[in-house]
Amino acid sequence: MHLRKTILATALLATPLFANAKLSQSDIKQFAAQADLKFGVVDNFHDNDGGYIGKIQLKNTSKVALPKGESNWQLYFHSIRKVKTPKVKGIAIEHVNGDLHRLVPTKSFAGLAVGETLALEYEAAAYIVSYSDVMPRAFISLDNKDAEVFASTDTEDLKQFVLPIVEERQLKKFNTPKDLSVIADAQNRHALNIKNEKYTPSQEDALKRIIPKPLDVDFSRGEVTLSSDWVVSYQGSLKQEVNVLLDDLSKLYGLKLEANADHISVGKKPHLSLKVDNSIQSGDAESYYLEIDKNKITVVGSDNAGVFYGLQSLLALFPADANGSVELPRVEIKDSPRFSYRGMHYDNARNFHGKDAMFKLVEQMAKYKLNTLHWHFSDDEGWRLEIPSLPELAEIGGVRCFDLSEDSCLLTQLGTGPHKDGSGNGYLTKDDFVELLKFAAARHIKIIPEVESPGHARASIKAMEARYRKLMKAGDEVGAKAYLLSDPEDKSKYITVQNYTDNSINACMDSSYNFMEKVTYELQQMYREAGVRLENLHFGGDEVGAGSWTNSPACQKMFEEAGNGVAGPADLKPYFTQRVAKMLAKRGIAPGAWEDGLMYDRVNTFNREEFPNPVFTANAWDNIWEWGVADRAYRLANNDYQVVLSHGTHLYFDHPYEAHPEERGYYWATRFISNEKAFGYMPDNVYANADFTRTGEVIKNLEDLVGRPLPQLEKPENILGMQGQVWSETIRTEDQVLAMLFPRVLAVAERAWYKAPWEGEKPDAQKRAKDWMTFSAALGTKELAKLAKSGVKANLDVPGGEVNKGTLTTSVATAYLDVEYSVDQGKSWQTYQQPVNVGDTQVWLRSSLNDQVKSRITTIN
């Protein structure tokens, strides 16, 4: 009997006790550190294109058991697709808000003993085909308070916690309709690459290729050696441009030139002459003339910007490795831009990537003659600029953490995790922004700030609610309500595309407009401090949740008042737009909005006459051809809005470079946007860009696909230009965002500056291929290396290749980029020079720029 008791006691000590047990903080800390948590997609073909089966796999490799039944723990995870399954295996799956979900044990939960694995399959909306759809930093909490991150998910190596995506039902979005996407592999990449190889120019010609391509280039015989013996002679008004030039020459090429205003004679010294002459290129703004001759380089601009761009073309002829002196071809260039608006949109509201990322982006935009940065600094997930009079915007709206009250931070989203030092947190201080404005202005870049409203505004709403609670507690009711953006009595029910239920600014409260004016005032003061003018303020306007304001007492009161132009919820978005536009007009600022923020419905624009603004810009983005709204760019332009082409199918650089699960990015507009696809965008004919549907089907008749006549462009003067976009839901670090931007930014610069002869309703495929290969060769020969020299690790194309009878041949889309191969699973790498015998061993391939910049690895079995 005594022996039996001893055995029983020993067994009890060895077996976790489940019943009615609660976990301690030390328990969940150990559990999170040691347990293995993984996520996966099981079946995208589950419900046509309406849902998929996902999987959560929790292997208890810790020494802590999860007790059976109800308990005090909750497991939080990020899912960009809203989970439909309410309960599985005794675990309730709850949607918190946005992408945040949690697992909560119920009475029927069987517990999770040490060594056991819990596998939960659930149904969620849409589909997942990419590792980057799954967010890192899941965490476990006690009583919804203290939280610990699962170490297995605390990484940017997504394959560490995402189950393999290899089967067709994982790689494809749906099976009904058929997803025709071709998943990239070494063999099909190789087949595509070799089609264009015959058009590859010599490296000598590639070095002469300026990006963006000038209008008129005439190379002469011979070269000129530019060294520190040269001097710069400049018209006095060009001092700012000269300072940027001298800094670039010194920092990047080791060239230190003396510079003097042109009233000082240069004597017989070889020199660089800079001046403004507004008769150049018929006086067109931003035009220039560049001549490189034996002992003189001349840059004449129609204005200061033209001189600056002439200097960028001069620098574009430098080899990347130039140091101390440089051999330049003798050349004469006459050049003018295609569009006055040449831009990049940058979202760091979703995830903040640091101050340096913004400066690097602006610096490179200038080198490629882009002149507008559309800065999306506010959204649901973050507010990224200090507003001194409303400190809560940055202090709370700029930080995500695990605080369900949202008094100290926003609700965690997008893989930030529970702690304030998690990824994606941060903001620019006022001084940072003033510094950025000065830096951009010196490089002829205008910054357009975007204050997202009335939708996509959760960060500002929650920050102002926290301010309200703080001031009410202090007894300051007037101050508390001054900038409140939400009606406490609002019972409206809605859910947005990003699964938020509370992100619409209340359009019926005067405090909402007080807020917009206060932020505008603060922005104007920053611009003035920087010595520039706030010319355009973008207020977003897009994707307002259907159902917003329908049960708001403040709005109901407005509906009942006669003569205010608001009879019901459908009138509120144009009403909001009118009030903001009139406020901006009084301040001399042009408003801007996304296209759907200016539409009553799918085809009818807001009445332009209701807005007093001479300029009202509209970003046309939604050109998903089969959705039937790709004609909005022309509808808006014809109705006197000034349109910036921003189309998702070619210009959204948060999309993958190729169709492959290891590529980062969303893919709602198209499965991929390669460098070549972005390069091939034709802004003069929106409809000519209709190539494939979202299923991958070739579009043969666009009007038949849409099912109605497509309006033609009647007022081309209202197309201001074009811009690329990057949205940052899946992009958490500086290196990640710069790789998503570059080198695709260069393709935007090319098309915004230069109209190619191959463009047209039916583009000349052969001429386009030749032009692309010259552009590609310039990337591989010098531009990628120049980017790296400036601290930008651009994305490198993954190589293609095949093994035929034991012989390896490889290729890469970017001409002259090195390819490396390994036959020992990456232990050692060799540079591919020519076909080589590798036998029947598995081969690994990657492209390589230098020791630090490599492509993703692909394999050939």
Automatic annotation (TrEMBL):
InterPro entries linked to this entry: Beta_hexosaminidase_sua/sub, CBM2/CBM3_carb-bd_dom_sf, CBM2_carb-bd_dom_sf, CHB/HEX_N_dom, CHB_C_dom, EF_Hand_1_Ca_BS, GH, Glyco_hydro_20_cat
CDD domains: E_set_Chitobiase_C, GH20_Sm-chitobiase-like
Matching SUPFAM superfamilies: (Trans)glycosidases, beta-N-acetylhexosaminidase-like domain, Carbohydrate-binding domain, E set domains
UniProt keyword annotations, A-Z: Glycosidase, Hydrolase, Signal
EC number: 3.2.1.52
Calcium in keyword set: no
UniProt-listed Pfam families: CHB_HEX, CHB_HEX_C, Glyco_hydro_20, Glyco_hydro_20b
Domain Chitobiase/beta-hexosaminidases N-terminal: 33-188
Broadest EC class assigned to this enzyme: hydrolase
Signal peptide span: 1-21
Sections of the chain in a coiled coil: none
Catalytic activity: Hydrolysis of terminal non-reducing N-acetyl-D-hexosamine residues in N-acetyl-beta-D-hexosaminides
Protein family (similarity comment): Belongs to the glycosyl hydrolase 20 family.
Annotated protein name in UniProt: beta-N-acetylhexosaminidase
Origin species: Pseudoalteromonas spongiae
